[in-house]
Description:
The chain is of the alpha+beta class.
Amino acid sequence: MKKTKAISLSLAILVSPVAFAESDAQLTQRCLDTFDKIAANDIDWFLAQMPSTPSEAQKKQAARVLQRAHDKFQNHPPQNIEVKQVSYKAPSKAKQERFGATNEARVKLLIESEMRRSHTSCKFLKTDKGWFLSSLP
C-alpha cells in the first residue's frame, strides 16, 4: 500500500493542551499505520490492539470488521489521507468498567480516492497499559 500512497500530514489540530502533543503525534502515526495493516488483512496485529484478551466470538467479529475494512480499501485505494483533528474525551462508564479505560481519543481523517472522498476516524482507548486501537478507520 505504500507504493503510491501520498499521505498528507497537514494537521488541523484544534487547541490541544501541551501534555497531549506527544500523544497527538503518536496516535496520529498509529492511525495512519493501520492502513498498511488493513491492506495486509493482518488479523494477528488487529487482535493484539485489543485492550483485553479477546474471546472466540470477539475474534470472529474482529475478523469480519477487518475484512470489511480491507475490502473497502481494496476497492477504493486511498490516494491522499489528511489528518483533520485529534480530540480527547472521557470514556463511557461501560468502557471504564469493561476495559479500565481512563481516556478516549479520536483521530479524524479525510480520505480521498480516485472516485470518492470520505471522512472517517480511528478511535483509541487509554488504559493503565497504554493506548489501544478501539475502532478502525
